[in-house]
Design a protein that fits this description.
The protein is α+β, with helices and mostly antiparallel strands and 93 residues long. It has two helices and four strands. It is globular.
Length: 93
Amino acid sequence: MNKELELGKRYNWEEIVEAYPGMWVRMSDCNLTIGSDIIDGILLGIYTDRDVAPVQIKMWHEKSKDELQRTTYDMNIGVIECLNAEMEVKDEP
């Protein structure tokens, strides 16, 4: 992380990506592109891949309209958008 951003403040997506590459962010009151990408929004939380599942479940139970997106994707990463999914990574020769 390059710099810490303050929760509860509005940031544009470029600021979020610069501060938290490879992390998940929860944002509210978002302005979105036609393709549903975040233009800007209010930063509510920052999560690792390991910590994001309970947040997704909580948001689902709350029927939250917040956005939860990963800032950047590394090579060889897959994303599954469904509840109760598990991902396993193996380092094989």
